[in-house]
Please model this.
Amino acid sequence: MIEERATVTEVDGVYVWIETASGGSCGSCSSNGSCGAGMLGRALGPGRPRRLRLRNTLGAVVGDRVDVGIGEADLLRAALLLYSLPLLTLFIGAGLGQIWFGADLAVAATGALGLGLGLLLARSLARFGGGAWNQPRLLRRAGQSRLPVEPLAANRRLV
Model:
């Protein structure tokens, strides 16, 4: 689970708006000087805080500090969808342009068309089912233990 700390800024019915600080993950490891993500973050400078709307599963109120997270498998699935699918459709489009037309300009145009279609398809698939599989979720209030503590009586069986 990839986690980040956020602050609840607004409560809207069963949803909360949270705000996270930007750039919290890069710059803290030993390969900071040679990492592309770290260099890009330094070049772009400090960004705006990110604001997300999530289902309020914790009963959080404005001002609460919460931990939000997304599973590694969900993040990998989203990355594969958003990067691989458009790249695949670009190659398919360029290949079909080569077969059908053979001219370089036509290959570039059909490749660009394939890329555009792949981006639209990835966007549609990411929103399929409400996008619940790729959404972060509230994990706990800041300061709570990582595992919920259950009363001992709930764990005992009556024999």
